[in-house]
Amino acid sequence: MSFASHLEKTTHSTASSIGHAPAAVPAQRGEVVVSLALRHAGTRIVTLRYEVCGDAELPAVFVAGGISANRHVGSSEAFADAGWWEAQVGAGRALDPRRHRLVAFDWLGSDGSLDAVIDPADQADAIACVLDALRIERLEAFVGCSYGAMVALQFAARHRARLNHVVAISGAHRAHPFSSAWRALQRRAVALGALQCDESHGLALARQLAILSYRTPEEFAERFDAAQVVDGRVRVAAEDYLDHCGAQYTARTSPLAFQRLSESIDLQSVAPECIDVPVTVVAVQEDRLVPIADSLDLAQRVRGPTRVQVLRSLFGHDAFLKEEAAIAAVLNHALNHTLQPAATSHSPIAIEAAA
Amino acid sequence: MSFASHLEKTTHSTASSIGHAPAAVPAQRGEVVVSLALRHAGTRIVTLRYEVCGDAELPAVFVAGGISANRHVGSSEAFADAGWWEAQVGAGRALDPRRHRLVAFDWLGSDGSLDAVIDPADQADAIACVLDALRIERLEAFVGCSYGAMVALQFAARHRARLNHVVAISGAHRAHPFSSAWRALQRRAVALGALQCDESHGLALARQLAILSYRTPEEFAERFDAAQVVDGRVRVAAEDYLDHCGAQYTARTSPLAFQRLSESIDLQSVAPECIDVPVTVVAVQEDRLVPIADSLDLAQRVRGPTRVQVLRSLFGHDAFLKEEAAIAAVLNHALNHTLQPAATSHSPIAIEAAA
């Protein structure tokens, strides 16, 4: 694959000079234009936008979140806005740019300019292009959450020589058929809105439906009370919250990007037997989108050494965003303890309850 | 309340003369026009449509299902179409019109002519009007499933002198806040369709969303495989099934009726402490719409004697329609064993696993 690269902004200051700002570390954004062979849609010229934080000499860790996440994982001096995983990124945190060079990118398709079927395997290949552009031969780890975990597994299967360790949080080797049905109906909501050129209305409904899959009945029972009659209609207690979720999402998301990335989740299909790098599998017992049985199946079938950590969380699939201390502990453990090769490929899986 | 009544059709033959037809029993349909004080929408003149099957001398059992059910519970000589609970109704079945006089009605609002907030308590009062019209003073039992169970509890709280026993299957004293959120989004799908004068499209989506709440991930995992790429789009394996569910539902359901009955579920609120008739609570462990914790809470708080039966089912909330043998056993037990008053109102609940 050919590529052209452009650096948007670079800072190489290393002194920590500003009051409460994070210790200054080099951070850079850039983009690379590559010709990428998509699995279902032919070869396309695409622009990949990345962000890197940490010295080039440090071991590199690729970080990827859900389909709504982006290249800005955590704030830095150069890019001071809060990142989507702010609680885990920064000096003294689990993903510390003074110890690792953190790399992330905007998902292929996330800018809404690619109206094509996008396979999670395509994302893995795109990430390999980003690493080429950055001259990173090998990742110390690929930390992925949700869709990012799916792509991490694809990367491990397709670019085995380029990474030492996968940390797959709340994502598995397949999309569960029930979760796929749930997402298909979200896409239908967007399509229904599009029929009347009101895509944002449809996208808001899709997001609200997605929220129900990310969270748990237990959380809603704690937060929300009984329905009320308002102006001749029944309004349930969660509707204000759901309105907020919908409005916030439509303000920053292209309906086409949502459609294509939502579809992409449903194409996830990696044979775990093709993965022979060490894998840390993090599963949440209350996750209604990625049933824990799928995570355990993944862990049992991968060929590399495996560690399974099971969390309990009222927040279900969103635990990776909400259970800050438990996720920090998982990440610290995963990045500081080398997984030993298993005695045999069929040795029992050690399941650890996370702190 | 005043009422006028009209009998649509009556048969009083008692001989079983036709090959495999059910033993002939009297069956009749009728309607009664009443003035009904709605809890949230003032007094309205409404038409209530009922069906009765079984001799007038037999003890009466009122039968009610989900919001999509109607007065035709099971087939008879007079009304030969299959009813919505055909497996449970008929000679030799759990609900046997040779042993009980079975009464059912079309939900208030189900014909789409009542554009008002309908409380489950209104349904209970409407049922009392139907019983008045039929000169039924007292029910041997009120067997309700899903929304029908909610209404049965309302009937017990509001018309205590008119029934001996409630059988509440997969329905509780409150709507769970998470399930309410799920239904609110279904109503938003109908509203989104209505904005573009395509209510049936919106209603189909709402029904498909409802189906996901009625069933379980475990069933989908057994039935459906991986997604496929079809004509440049991802199509998940459950979409054919969901299309079928949507089309079937929109062919027979008024969008307004769906909106108002769906809302009604979310208004369910009965203090269990106000119920002092015997109650059989039937809960399904896999039910994602009516969490078993709510059913157990109900059983612990009612003042009358209580029996709890817990089923396991791959079909979740739809178990009352799908687990024919287990539900038949539950009904046979409930209708043939008198519940003894508890020693105290706080005695421990005996939980029985159903066959």
From TrEMBL, chains A, B:
Bilayer-spanning residue ranges: none
Keyword vocabulary terms for this entry: Acyltransferase, Transferase
Keyword Transferase: yes
GO molecular function, one term: homoserine O-acetyltransferase activity
Enzyme Commission (EC) number: 2.3.1.31
Top-rank taxon, per record: Bacteria
SUPFAM superfamilies: alpha/beta-Hydrolases (SSF53474)
InterPro entries assigned: AB_hydrolase_1, AB_hydrolase_fold, HAT_MetX-like
Domain AB hydrolase-1: 78-304
Compositionally biased tracts (Basic and acidic residues): 1-11
Chain spans, region Disordered: 1-22
Name of the molecule in the record: Homoserine O-acetyltransferase
